[in-house]
Amino acid sequence: MVEDLLAGAWQSIVFGAVGIALMAAGFLLVDALTPGKLRELIWIQRNSNASLLLLANQLGIAAIVFTAILTSYTDFAKGLASTVLFGVIGLGIMALAFLVLDWLTPGKLGEVICAEQPHPAARVSAATHFGAALIVCACIA
């Protein structure tokens, strides 16, 4: 019984670390997709457009990791590998969704996201980002 608890605790720690690493990668992804430094845009300039996009990204990655763990293989190594794989796929799909939306709309979406004034396109971009993550969640389940 204690061994099962310790094994479960260890697996929780590892899955948690993988989830945090994927969310950090999501931060870097949004930073790469938008001009300027995301840290400065959100924490210093208090840019609501950039924070909305990052919020959608972080929730999207969390949903993907959650779904991957919930539907995981009984074998820990396979479950961990699938969580990492689907997390990386999710990041790629979200980046692709951002680029397609940028291509379909006037101007540069990254510049709109960095604008000081709230912009409706930021909400559309956030919804597209999160929607892409939900598609990956459905594929996992």
From TrEMBL:
Belongs to the UPF0719 family. Keywords: Cell membrane, Membrane, Transmembrane, Transmembrane helix. It is found in: Cell membrane. The keyword Transmembrane helix applies. InterPro entries: DUF350. Coiled coil: none annotated. The chain crosses the membrane at residues 12-30, 51-73, 79-101. Its main location: membrane. This is DUF350 domain-containing protein. It comes from Plantactinospora endophytica. It is a multi-pass membrane protein.
